[in-house]
Amino acid sequence: MDRIRIRGGRALNGSIPISGAKNAGLPLMAAALLTDQPLTLTNAPDLADIATMSGLLRQHGLSLEHDKTARTITMSGAATNLEAPYDLVRKMRASILVLGPLLARYGQARVSLPGGCAIGTRPVDLHLKGLEQMGAEINLEAGYIDAKAPKGGLKGAKIYFNQVSVGATENLLIAATLADGVTELVNAAREPEITDLAHCLIAMGAKIEGVGTDRLRIEGVSSLHAATHPVVPDRIEAGTFACAAAITGGSVLLEGAKLEHLGAVIRVLREAGVAVEQEEGGLRVSRLNGLHGVDVMTEPFPGFATDMQAQFMALMAVAEGASMITETIFENRFMHVPELNRMGANINAHGSSAIVRGVKKLSGAPVMATDLRASVSLIIAGLAAGGETIVNRVYHLDRGYERIEQKLSAVGADIERIPG
Ligand code: EPZ
After folding, report:
1. pLDDT (tens digit, 9 = 90+) per residue, 258-280?
2. Adjacent-strand bridge partners of 418
3. Which residue, by CA, sits nearest to atom 26 of ligand 1?
């Protein structure tokens, strides 16, 4: 397994191209199942999870063309196989996003239950309850979801989410585009990736109102057509590199990144002493003076993103004073804590909160990546630590960060991948 070696202490300066968002690309690819006409995504990221979704769509029967140079993915053709098998779904939970489009377009689907993952049990009850409200018959057996739409197809319904869910909002938004009648999603998630998905669906001929709000109204249409859609820049990648620039005391332009896509993360970074300004070409991030501890609670967008929690904790590990970080979205998203402490951080996690007491300097060490965002928090810590840090199991990183060592070394980091 590949490892990444970092020699810390060098300030990052220059500009970093921000790739298309993983968490937009995945639902956008699932939406290709809604029509056999070609859906072309531009600014598509080249990531392991995107490749997994490509494999899943191919085994459903779609044809896909990836042009890595042009950064496009074109999907077309009809699904000939309506089953999403366990061995693919267990590799990537976002595979559950094929359930809505398969059911809406073909009237049935058999999708493996995704099961939990390192950061939590991550049930899909909100996805299933919403589809049942649209008339689907759902049976769970042998670890699979067996779903059937009524004779005339899914019906529009008014669906109240008792908890904000990105994936359930996406699955039901996609399914509602072809349902018979009007669907309302109330207390819908508002992440920029959902707005991006809605824009793509509208380009395909869907009728959606309330885009960007927590109340989406979708009027079903009989069919959707070809479209070309640019994948929105990855705000979490941008936020990650913002923490990297801040912890090293550098100044970096995050090309293509947008202030409004990071919500409360911007306010928190500024309170911590990080300058973040929107420029023509992207977000300019630099550190003025010292960093100071700021309390943070993760929340659905536009609150502080849970996907930024581990990265921000690494930054707070060397801030002046203390920072209380509370994770409200997932039940087990502090696996980076023991690894950061091995690098000399002073972090105490109790249940869903962790108190971070800033230390002067971290020291490099061999550390273990456990999940996507935990692994990148170790990279951030390694960039500022004295000595050498070796991050093991970097396959977690490759799921969500394109060429991270190349992007970081291009702005001055001493970082390299050691093929394993
Ligand atoms: C998406 O996951 C993202 N993944 C996650 O990013 C992100 O952390 C999460 O949204 C929250 O922003 C993709 O977009 C591919 P949720 P998702 O449904 O859709 C509970 C990363 O690092 N819940 O908003 O699975 C759930 O257990 C990944 O890029 C139910 O109880 O998240 C969690 O506690 C990690 N029942 C909370 O809701 C359901 O049916 C939020 O989950 C669905 C969710």
Report:
1. 999 999 999 999 999 999 999 99
2. 3
3. 122
